[in-house]
Write a structure and sequence with these properties.
This protein has 307 residues and is of the alpha/beta class. It is built from 11 helices and 11 strands. The protein has helices at residues 3-16, 31-47, 78-83, 131-142, 148-161, 172-183, 188-194, 199-208, 229-242, 270-276, 296-306; strands at residues 20-24, 53-57, 85-89, 107-110, 121-123, 213-215, 218-226, 247-253, 258-264, 280-281, 285-290. Strands 6-7-8-9-11-10 form a 6-stranded mixed β-sheet, with helices on both faces.
């Protein structure tokens, strides 16, 4: 039995023994955190006899993924939160958890970011391109029962965090896990159709990508419009398709700051840039925040200095 299988069995034992469970997603949520939470909720219902109830505590999920959500999701009540086991998905640190009541030392974590902070029990490390891949492997390893909600949730998680197999540390296992989901009954083409952007969202992405600037190894855009979480990830993905530099950044306007999503094609570690500016992430995919537009030049100069 390998070490990961041991961890899967240990964490699933803790989950299986809990009567009440709160699943926690991250801020500015994407398809990986939402898909994993939805899938995990169904997996617990299907496979854990001791479970009385399992709820997701979060919000602000992308519009094009709303088909995954059957019941409205918001922060759970204090009474329910207090009596439940907390399980955090796709989130490396407490500051990125949507539900800030979570105490990491008292919570489980299923993640694919570099291991940070102290947790009651965790499976983590920057070894997989998506948390959906990890949970799919858990399902396969433990031979858990699944349904179409589990299959779609995990597939959405993998597809969105790999940008449909175009980003980050994808391996043969990534494709094996998608193949496994399809072997269990996932309708891949139907799912991709459900995930499409609408015309207004596509127009906003197109307008944002019209004015691309390049200096040294980095290309970037600065949006004039406020960019909702609904299109943040697809916008960054589209920008990557349009540039030929090693690094690209989308400086996306928000109400009182700019959300900065940074990516690299191969060898440049963007997480060190994100950490320098108070953010974090993976080797080829990370993010940070700046307060004012004048800080853009600081980020561009810092990247080119590291190159």
């Amino acid at each position: 039995m390998n070490n990961l299988e041991v961890k899967f069995r240990e964490i699933w034992k803790i989950i299986s023994n809990a009567e009440y469970i709160t699943l926690c997603t991250h801020t500015q949520p994407d398809g990986d955190t939402l898909g994993c939470a939805i899938a995990l909720q169904e997996l617990i219902k299907l496979n854990c006899k001791n479970n009385v109830d399992v709820k997701i505590s979060g919000g602000d999920y992308p519009r094009n993924l709303s088909f995954l959500i059957k019941d409205p999701i918001s922060l759970v009540s204090q009474e329910y939160f207090d009596k439940s086991l907390k399980v955090v998905v796709d989130t490396s640190t407490k500051k990125r958890i949507f539900d800030q009541r979570v105490i990491s030392e008292e919570s489980l974590k299923l993640d694919h970011h570099p291991c940070e902070e102290k947790w009651l029990y965790e499976i983590g490390g920057d070894y997989w391109p998506a948390e959906g891949q990890v949970i799919t492997l858990l399902v396969k390893t433990l031979n858990l029962k699944v349904n179409h909600i589990v299959l779609e949730g995990l597939a959405v998680a993998i597809l969105t965090d790999t940008e449909f197999f175009r980003e980050r540390n994808i391996t043969s296992e990534t494709f094996d896990m998608m193949s496994f989901l399809m072997s269990k009954g996932l309708n891949y083409l139907d799912l991709v159709q459900k995930m499409q952007m609408n015309p207004n969202e596509n127009k906003l992405i197109f307008n944002a990508c019209k004015d691309i600037k390049t200096e040294g190894i980095v290309s970037w855009i600065i949006t004039d419009d406020i960019i909702p979480n609904d299109i943040a990830k697809p916008l960054v993905s589209k920008l990557g398709e349009l540039v030929d530099t090693e690094v690209w950044i989308a400086f996306m306007k928000q109400e009182n700051y700019f959300r900065c999503s940074i990516r690299s094609k191969k060898s440049f570690n963007v997480s060190q840039v994100a950490k320098h500016f108070g953010g974090g992430g993976h080797f080829n995919s990370a993010g940070f925040v700046i307060k004012e537009i004048r800080e853009v030049n600081n980020a561009i100069n810092y990247i080119n200095k590291l190159a």
